[in-house]
Design goal:
Chain lengths: 123, 904
């Protein structure tokens, strides 16, 4: 069973996040999902540019569970369309904070690039 | 659905834990992906999904395994750091064990296995004897050690089987040279044919090497190629060294090139400073002509090693046949003038043997290979014993953690996971031991070389891939051995009973049984080490006390090389006599004499003889060793003259030819009769010298320490049977040997400055040098034996301690019921006694077989020497008894009340 480490206040140790992790956090940001749903959401959101396959997805999920970024739900969020074999995941508070920190970091990088006129103001 | 099954099989690449956690989901997700792909985009898209799964599999599976391993390692490090005492002792013992094995292996690698740093070393063959060094004047039947310059030239013509042939002097010429106006410095020169560098396939870093197209006439090419190290040392690595000259004793050579840094030549263990063409032999060794065979004497000067590169597609067999054809033809021509057909047949019985020369030639191999293998075996045994001790300790700790293990098993951990963690712990220990062991190996290797005390041996870089591979493999093996016992323990843990019991009583019984087996094994393995050490130590003792036939203390030997002066034999002898008279006149010298072959230098003369009144039967009585000695030789040495007289200065060249024989000679050829007055005739080809026996002396050793004393005769230097190229002065000082030596040096310098001193020192130092290797073996095997004994004793102590601790309850009850100390001690002793008995018996059986492996190294005792066996057995028994006494005495001091309260 994966050990759950106590949530650390040190968000910075986790940054920068691997691409897959960030995408999963974003996918879980608006609602709780199961694995395949995360996969589909990431694919749709990036117009097919980022495709997570099962191995990458669950490897990332295993790490994120350990780090306390996400947690597994005991019950399906929508009992009506519940699928017994699927496991649902939810973003934790800590996970949300980390996602926000990463977004901020990416945004800062973007500003730096704009400041040196590397890219135009509206990309 | 078939795809599910296939995908499930693929999931086996992931660690078990991950599979159990997420496997089901992954299969579900994969199925969804396939379904949607097929539905939306058809079969091609499904194939893309499959491809994606495969591509994704390897990196993620690897990363998951990596993650588990990192977790295990972190856990192992935590556990090991929590017991710093145990961990440091364990790592240190492993480091010592692994380090010792690695040091010995790396020496073996350098001496035996490393191929030469040349192009395609596996194409090289050698036509002379790889382990021979030196030179022979005369004749050598059977397999040739060396060849002559003429024979090399003849074989060089053999284009059909050899792509190229080269010759090099079998000994480095250690002489002195001056360069660029500097002082005279020692230099080591290798004389080589002009085809040397081309045959080996070595290109210079700057300049050029010798012109391989033809072998030049003597004296025609005064060139030299420097070694890289000498170039750095003497010329600062500057390119302007090219064109500079080296002034040698006999002439000047010009530097034309520098060899690459890793190149040391073809003789392992030797490092020449300079390579000079054979054609310049007279320049390097003035006063000698070794390029031409002496005319009219049928004595060949054999001094060269022969190497060749096989022509493409030619086998060693065919090359050997062809080479011997040419060789025999040359011999037939050379020895054609011998009248006697039997004699001629004997002279023609010579041949060349071709050997693969990828690892070069080495005199070290014959001397070192066997002792190194013996040492490696001993070191391996010690490591095994150390590992088993540590394994036992780890097992004990695991038993102590039985409750923790049982709890985890009960909570759902798989046995595989626990075993994996335990193995990780033992591998971490092994890895730490291996890493530290590398450093230990470096120090040990240097120490080993120094023990042999021969500063001229230079072996290439210590750590090469094969050695690193050895360390890695050994560490892995150690890790597995260490982890085996605890891992086995886990598989036998009965969860229920372990949780129920106080401290895991039943489980510890298993450990005790295993522990006892291990201890018996340790005892059985340490005894052969102790016996071996004892045998080698007694061999050393015997060698140090070899009866030389004379007193070796307080004897100085000084060898001079007379050939450099270039005198005729008559003039030379006169020079010796003058030197002798002057040394005798010194107040610091009590007595002095000289001889051609010196003492214990390993050189000797030997020829065919005919003894008057004796008909040879052919079993070792057709020839004899002999030496040419100065006046008063035997009285100076202190060898008693048993009958007749010794050689005096009345024995001139013009007088009657006389000789003195030793006891063995008298016994062999004159059994019963009085030899005085009879004649011995020495003959070599058509030369003959007949001597009248005038005296018999006690047997003594002139050549070596170990060989049995053979029959020999002594002629005066004024009436030599063979040419004399140097003499050793044997001096008995009057008081201080150091000042006597200084005086002798002064006399030699003043009287004959053209005869350089080759060697000078005390005879006892020579003896020490000759037994240096035996000393090394004895010291190291004693060290190994002692360590093994201590380890076995510790192992015994550990098992007994634990066993007694388990029975504290029982002992307490017995004491409460009135049992005496004696009864308790007997109870404990009985347990030890059985272990000891079985271990010793097994050990003796193993020793009896193992000691045969070192039989050839022993001197003065047999491999099954009962005294040594007895001493070793007693020593081990005493150590075992001591190891027993501590826990036993503790047991008898147990307070019954405390014991009864302990829940065991």
């Amino acid at each position: 069973m994966a050990a759950r480490r106590p949530q650390s206040d040190d968000i910075d140790t986790l940054l920068p996040l691997p691409t897959a992790v960030f995408h999963i956090l974003v996918a879980l940001a608006d609602r709780d999902r199961h694995g395949y749903s995360i996969m589909q959401d990431v694919g749709a959101r990036t117009d097919g540019k980022v495709r997570l396959s099962a191995g990458t997805l669950y490897s990332a999920i295993a790490r994120m569970l350990e780090q306390g970024l996400i947690e597994e739900l005991q019950h399906s969020p929508d009992p009506a369309s519940a699928d017994e074999r699927r496991r649902y995941y939810r973003l934790t508070r800590f996970g949300r904070d980390v996602a926000v920190a990463e977004a901020r970091r990416l945004s800062e990088m973007l500003s730096h690039a704009r400041a040196t006129k590397l890219i135009p103001r509206k990309l | 659905m078939r795809s599910t099954d296939v995908y499930r099989v693929l999931l086996w690449c992931y660690p078990a834990q991950f599979r159990e956690e997420h496997g089901g989901e992954m299969v579900a997700v994969f199925c969804d992906q396939l379904r949607d792909a097929r539905r939306d985009k058809g079969r091609f898209a499904a194939a893309v999904v499959w491809a994606g799964a495969f591509v994704d599999l390897v990196p993620t599976a690897l990363s998951e395994h990596n993650h588990v391993i990192r977790q295990d390692v972190r856990h192992a490090v935590r556990i090991l750091s929590a017991a710093p005492g145990f961990t440091s002792v364990a790592v240190l013992s492993l480091a010592l064990g692994i380090g010792a094995n690695t040091a010995i292996f790396s020496l073996l690698n350098s001496v035996l296995m490393n191929t030469l740093p040349v192009r395609n070393p596996h194409e090289l063959v050698m036509l002379t004897d790889p382990s021979a060094r030196g030179n022979t004047l005369g004749m050598q039947s059977g397999e040739r050690y060396f060849v002559t310059y003429d024979e090399f030239r003849q074989l060089q013509e053999q284009h059909s089987v050899f792509a190229s042939v080269m010759a090099s002097s079998s000994m480095l010429q250690r002489t002195e040279a001056r360069s660029g106006g500097g002082a005279l410095e020692p230099i080591a020169i290798r004389l080589v044919s002009s085809s040397y560098f081309a045959t080996l396939g070595v290109s210079p870093v700057i300049g050029r090497t010798f012109d391989a197209s033809r072998e030049p006439a003597p004296g025609a090419t005064p060139e030299a190629v420097l070694s890289h190290e000498y170039w750095q040392r003497r010329f600062g690595g500057r390119p302007d060294a090219l064109g500079r000259t080296l002034i040698l004793r006999g002439g000047v050579v010009t530097i034309i090139g520098v060899a690459p840094p890793s190149f040391f030549g073809e003789m392992v263990g030797e490092r020449p400073d300079v390579w000079v063409p054979l054609a310049m032999q007279a320049t390097v060794m003035p006063g000698r002509d070794w390029l031409h065979d002496q005319s009219g004497s049928l004595e060949k000067r054999m001094w060269l090693h022969l190497f060749a590169r096989l022509a493409p597609g030619v086998t060693t067999q065919r090359a050997q046949t062809q080479a011997n054809l040419t060789f025999s033809q040359g011999l037939a021509t050379y020895y054609g003038s011998i009248a006697d057909p039997d004699d001629r047949k004997r002279f023609l019985d010579q041949r060349l043997v071709l050997r693969n020369a990828a690892t070069g030639a080495s005199a070290l191999r014959g001397a070192f290979a066997e002792p190194l293998f013996v040492l490696l075996a001993a070191a391996g045994l010690v490591l095994l014993i150390a590992c088993s001790n540590l394994g036992n300790l780890l097992l004990a700790r695991t038993t102590g953690r039985a409750r923790e293990m049982a709890t985890r098993l009960a909570l759902g951990a798989s046995r595989g996971r626990l075993i994996r963690q335990l193995l990780t712990e033992s591998f971490c220990l092994a890895a730490a031991g291996g890493l530290v062991g590398l450093f230990v190996a470096g120090a040990l290797r240097a120490g080993l070389l120094r023990l042999v005390a021969d500063a001229t041996i230079v072996l290439p870089a210590p750590f090469q891939f094969r050695t690193i591979g050895f360390v890695f493999g050994l560490t892995l093996l150690v890790g597995v051995i260490l982890g085996l016992l605890p891992a086995l323990r886990i598989t036998k843990t009965n969860v229920g009973s372990a949780l129920r019991e106080g401290r895991g009583n039943a489980g510890s019984a298993v450990w005790l049984r295993v522990g006892r087996l291990v201890v018996v094994g340790q005892l059985a393995l340490s005894l052969p080490l102790l016996v071996g050490a004892g045998l080698l130590a007694r061999t050393l003792y015997n060698l140090q006390r070899v009866d030389l036939g004379y007193v070796a203390d307080d004897v100085l030997t000084v060898r001079i090389d007379s050939q450099t002066a270039g005198y005729s034999q008559v003039r030379q002898t006169a020079a010796f006599e003058e030197i002798l008279a002057r040394i005798r006149a010194l107040p610091s010298v009590r007595a002095v004499t000289y001889s051609n072959n010196g003492l214990l230098q390993g050189s000797d003369n030997g020829d065919q003889i005919a003894v008057e009144g004796y008909s040879a039967s052919g079993r070792g009585d057709r020839g004899s060793s002999y030496d040419a000695v100065g006046p008063g030789y035997f009285s100076t040495l202190g060898v008693p003259v048993l009958s007749g007289r010794e050689i005096t200065n009345q024995d001139r060249a013009s007088g009657p030819m006389v000789c003195v024989i030793n006891e063995a000679f008298a016994k062999r050829f004159f059994d019963g009769r009085n030899p005085i007055g009879f004649h011995v005739t020495q003959h070599y080809a058509d030369q003959r010298h007949t001597y009248e026996i005038v005296g018999i002396v006690r047997d003594s050793r002139q050549r070596g320490l170990r060989d049995p004393i053979e029959h020999r005769f002594y002629t005066p230097v004024t009436q030599p049977a063979a040419m004399i190229s140097g003499v050793t002065f044997i001096v008995r000082p009057n008081g201080d040997a150091v000042s006597a030596l200084a005086d002798v040096r002064r006399v030699l310098q003043q009287t004959e400055p053209t005869m350089p001193i080759v060697r000078a020192g005390l005879l006892t130092a020579v003896v020490r040098e000759r037994i240096a290797q035996d000393r090394m073996l004895a010291q190291l095997s004693i060290a190994f034996g002692a360590v093994a004994m201590v380890l076995a004793a510790i192992g015994l102590y550990g098992v007994l301690s634990y066993g007694i601790a388990r029975r504290t309850n029982e002992i307490g009850i017995r004491k409460a019921l009135g049992a005496q100390h004696a009864t308790l001690i007997t109870m404990i002793a009985r347990e030890t006694g059985w272990l000891l008995l079985i271990g010793l018996v097994a050990g003796i059986a193993i020793s009896a077989g193992a000691t045969r492996l070192i039989a050839s190294r022993l001197y003065g005792l047999s491999p099954s020497d009962p005294v040594t066996f007895a001493i070793a057995t007693v020593a081990l028994a005493v150590a075992a008894v001591l190891a027993t006494w501590l826990p036993a005495s503790r047991a008898t001091r147990v307070d019954p009340l405390v014991a009864l309260r302990i829940e065991r």
